[in-house]
Amino acid sequence: MKKNLKTAAVLGAGMIVGAALGVLYAPYKGAKSRRRIAKWTQQNKDLLMAKIRQPELMHN
Description:
0% strand, flat
């Protein structure tokens, strides 16, 4: 139980640090970044869905 709690705490801390660094080093402002992510997602929707359905494709 303690190991799981520690793992969750480290994971949560890593997510917070990662998000903060992402915001600090983002090459574009928020609105432009969101538009670029949305455009990329739409362009690659089929590939993303295939990877979600077949996790073994995630390593390609």
